Amino acid sequence: MKYLVVSDSHGDRQVLVDLFNHYKGKVDYIFHCGDSELPADDPVWDGVYVVTGNTDFDSRYKKAQVVDTEEDIVYLTHGHLSSVKMGLMQLDMQAQEYEATIALFGHTHQLGCEVNKGRLFLNPGSILQPRGGISVKTYAIIESTTENFQVQYYDRNFEPIEDLSFIFNK
């Protein structure tokens, strides 16, 4: 299974249109981890799993979603309600509750991924306003197999970022 993961687009609708059109038919699932600042009924969300962020004020968004892809159970949240700036413990407990194999989040605008006890935690960074040591506007593609998670980060030009490619055993 291939998953496109993006977050923190903060009103830049066109980048989402470009991204989703580029990957149409190339990925199995698309996830947006919140802070889009778009209406929940925007047509851009057709076929996209999306959650609310701390700058989304449309009450129709869900705070979290659980998606069974047949390969994985994905727990999707923005992270502000999981205190991700303080660590991943609360997010881990939430993901455990649903027996999730992948926990996706945003909020910090800092990309990162790690596996703990077989569960992949991934922040795709921000497609608009990156923070931290890597100042590239990013999103991520996860390829999940029965053996491992392959994670590749990309820039806004759909180019893979060479040093940001990871393989984790399940």
From TrEMBL:
Its cofactor is a divalent metal cation. It comes from the Bacteria. Residues 1-145 form the Calcineurin-like phosphoesterase domain. GO terms for molecular function: hydrolase activity; metal ion binding. Keywords: Metal-binding. Its EC number is 3.1.4.-. Belongs to the metallophosphoesterase superfamily. YfcE family. This is Phosphoesterase. The lineage of its organism: Bacteria, Bacillati, Bacillota, Bacilli, Lactobacillales.
